[in-house]
Amino acid sequence: MDLSSIAALATAFFWACSSMLAVYPVQQLGSFTFNRIRLQAIFVLLCVLVLITGGWRTLGSQYIFALALSGFIGILLGDSLLYASLQRIGPRRNSILFSTHAPMTAILSFLVLDERLSPIAVGGVAFVIVGVMLAIAFGHNGRQKHPWESVRGSLVIGVGIALLAALCQAVSSMIAKPVMASGVDPIAASVVRVSTAVLCFTLLGFFPQLRPTVPITPRLFLQSTASGLCGMVLGMTTLLFALAHGQTGLVATLSSTSPIMILALLWLHTKKRPSLGAWIGAAIAIAGIALIFNR
């Protein structure tokens, strides 16, 4: 079994859980404050983990700039845009748009890293992308009136923000790939990436316009931290591990299956079963994953 593919699928699951946990605190605090709280909380945990595991020994000074740049683009810019779009258009629409980071990454990996996929792998990538799009596009039953399906503000702006978030994720993965392939510990790499974003968020937090307008209650703090634990500590670590041992395009494709997992989580939360079209899309995506595993 390909461990990089398993790690990429684990990333998708952790990202799905993170997105579900983020909906309420993002709507209450806004994307900036939410992102700052979760990053500051998990930064401490990551530092403890890297000291315990000794992973910092794999981190050469020549890798610091690339990882810091990856963190600036992928976490500070990408995550802020991602949660801003989540606040506007909800988890289902946000997921389908963010999943476009997979084809973006595949194209960039071909142009920049000269990574070439086998015909079977290309077919698997195509199946996964089409399946994810169908699963989310038809995942909403017209009879459902859950608040998470409502649009806050302009739908066009929300769509544009989500696509920019996907592009940031693709570029960030491209920058981190050569570093991870050199053998740097994923947790140590996460510390550098997260610390860059934490420093920027802390400095920006001095601006009055970016301060929270509602009290940060224990519930909001715990949900923000739990989202960060799933998305950053678990999700980003498994993603960096997958990038270190697998092809960038395939890793991006498998990690983009989180929208299908969100469908199941939304079903559990809203008690509303997704439509037949959503299940067809999920089946197509699973067929694509099978092709990738057996490439």
What does this structure look like?
This protein is mainly α and 295 residues long. It has eleven helices and no strands. It has helices at residues 3-29, 31-53, 64-98, 101-112, 119-137, 155-181, 186-204, 218-245, 248-255, 258-270, 276-293. Helix 2 packs antiparallel against helix 7, helix 2 (31-53) crosses helix 8 (218-245) and helix 3 packs across helix 10 (258-270). The longest helix has 35 residues, at 64-98. The protein is globular, with a radius of gyration of 18 Å.
Q: Biggest sheet, open or closed, and with what strands and sense?
A: none
N-to-C SSE string, H for helix and E for strand: HHHHHHHHHHH
Cα separation of the termini: 11 Å
Rg result: 18 Å
The total of beta strands comes to 0
Number of helices: 11
**Beta-sheet strand percentage?**
under 5%
Which geometry do the CA atoms define?
Answer: globular
Average residue-wise pLDDT: 82
Segments where pLDDT lies below 50 for 5+ residues? Answer: none
Structural class: mainly alpha
